[in-house]
Task: structure prediction
Amino acid sequence: KACEIVLKRRDADTMCGFVRNIGREGETGTVLTLSELRDTQVDMFTTVCIGNSQTKEIAGKLVTPRGYQY
Result:
């Protein structure tokens, strides 16, 4: 439901990411678009980040520039 709300104001290709089991055995991270995130199951062990218009995927990581060169 949260993705549907965000999709009213953000493009479907907005970069997003999530990490499951942060700091625990089996930690995994995934970078995907907002439209892909909408169809993804997450649980209470998952942290989700939704990027802004400047967010990009660089070397498999979600990066939002803050005025520095990349």
About this structure: The two ends are 34 Å apart (CA to CA).
